[in-house]
Specification:
- By secondary structure, this protein is an alpha/beta fold.
- The chain folds into 2 domains: 177 residues, Medium-chain alcohol dehydrogenases, catalytic domain (Quinone Oxidoreductase, Chain A, domain 1); 136 residues, Quinone Oxidoreductase, Chain A, domain 1, CATH 3.90.180.
- The protein is 27% helix and 29% strand.
- The strands form 3 sheets. Strands 1, 2, 3, 4, 5, 6, 9, 10, 17 and 18 form a 10-stranded mixed β-sheet that branches. It has a 6-stranded parallel β-sheet with strand order 13-12-11-14-15-16, with helices on both faces.
- α4 packs across α5.
- The protein starts with 5 loop residues before the first strand and ends with a strand.
- It binds zinc ion.
- Zinc ion binds next to α2.
- Zinc ion (ZN) binds next to α2.
């Protein structure tokens, strides 16, 4: 199937559903280079909320599983001819079979074997990672190693949500709910790049200030945000609402939405079950759009944006050995941007 992934050497493994304490460091055997694969000496691995859900036993994943979808490093060995030892690379955070009709049409997200590194297969939090050649991309030279492992999953996810799904147009108003999440930081940056007016919310005054520094046009408290959003848009409401908080905010989303607006979501960090007032959906002519991850074609467009100057925000960096503390930091929801593991110098 061409989707064998091998995580080797010292690795951060989800072993038991105990939260951050259930992710531990273990030495995994090194394997000879697989045909058509590239072995990467990982320098940095990015942590996502997904890793935390898994550590808490909320994903249907049988341990052990090496965590993290995002990774960057230096090619150690390569077969296939496109890469050579020493090349600086980063990885596509998704897997697919590459052969089905959907993959052939560039819609890998609809592949029956679609998955995420560190969830459906072992991930990047390891010293040596073997992946199929087609998952390897050149690291944009402008990015540090930490930044290179901080953007793939969140920027890919946010980019597909705002472009392919919500079709955000220049001059429209975008509301990003919950400014601190990695995917929200990506949405603010991409929304500005696409020429939207960007509003954002947070429960934390410090995060509102960070969001303004990042380029958000307006940053307002999350509590009861629909009133201020309507004030700031001359009563019209937001054209596109980007929400990964879900249950706690979807009612406010519908109140803050413009007629004919689009709500796009990739998650529900406040809980999976959502209650909404159905009349708000139809009276607003609302589109509620789901999205998760993205295609390799969209990833290539994201890499171009990054090459053009868009940068992820790195909240903090922990050595691999301190993966438990890194996950606990994310669990406390105090971060602004991405938490990154430094695997090797
Ligand atoms: Zn496929």
């Amino acid at each position: 199937m061409g989707m064998a992934i091998s995580s080797e050497g010292l690795a951060a493994e989800y072993q038991e559903p105990l939260g951050p304490a259930g992710v531990r460091i273990r030495e995994r055997p090194r394997q000879p280079l697989l045909e058509g694969h590239v072995a990467v000496a990982v320098k940095t691995a990015g942590i996502n909320h997904l890793d935390l859900w898994m550590a808490h036993g909320m994903q249907r994943v049988d341990p052990p599983r090496v965590i993290c979808a995002d990774g960057a490093g230096v090619v150690e060995e390569a077969s296939g001819g496109r890469w050579k030892p020493g090349d600086e690379v980063l990885l596509l955070p998704t897997v697919s079979d590459g052969t089905c009709e959907q993959c052939q049409a560039g819609n890998e997200v609809f592949c029956p074997h679609f998955g995420i590194l560190g969830e459906h297969v072992d991930g990047t939090a390891c010293e040596r990672l073997q992946v199929p050649e087609r998952m390897v991309y050149a690291k944009p030279p402008a990015l540090s190693w930490e930044e290179a492992a901080a953007f793939p999953l969140t920027f890919l996810t946010a980019y597909r949500m705002l472009t392919t799904r919500a079709r955000l147009q220049r001059g429209e108003t975008l509301l990003v709910v919950g400014a601190g999440a990695g995917v929200s930081v990506a949405a603010i940056a991409i929304g500005k790049h696409l020429g939207a007016r960007v509003l954002t919310t947070s429960r934390s005054e410090a995060k509102l200030e960070r969001a303004r520094q990042l380029g958000a046009d307006e940053a307002i408290p999350t509590e009861g945000f629909s009133g201020p959003v309507r004030e700031l848009t001359a009563k019209k409401g937001a054209d596109v609402i980007f929400d990964s908080v879900g249950a706690a905010t979807v009612d406010e989303d519908l109140k803050a939405l413009a007629l004919g607006g689009r709500i796009v979501t990739c998650g529900s960090t406040s809980g999976p079950k959502v209650t909404l007032l159905w009349p708000r959906v139809f009276f607003k002519h609302a589109d509620i759009l789901g999205s998760t991850m993205g295609n390799s074609g969209e990833f290539e467009e994201v890499l171009e944006l990054v090459g053009a100057g868009l940068k992820p925000v790195v909240d903090s960096v922990y050595p691999l050995a301190e993966v438990e503390q890194a996950l606990a930091h994310l669990d406390a929801a105090e971060q602004f941007g991405k938490v990154v593991l430094r695997v090797a110098e």
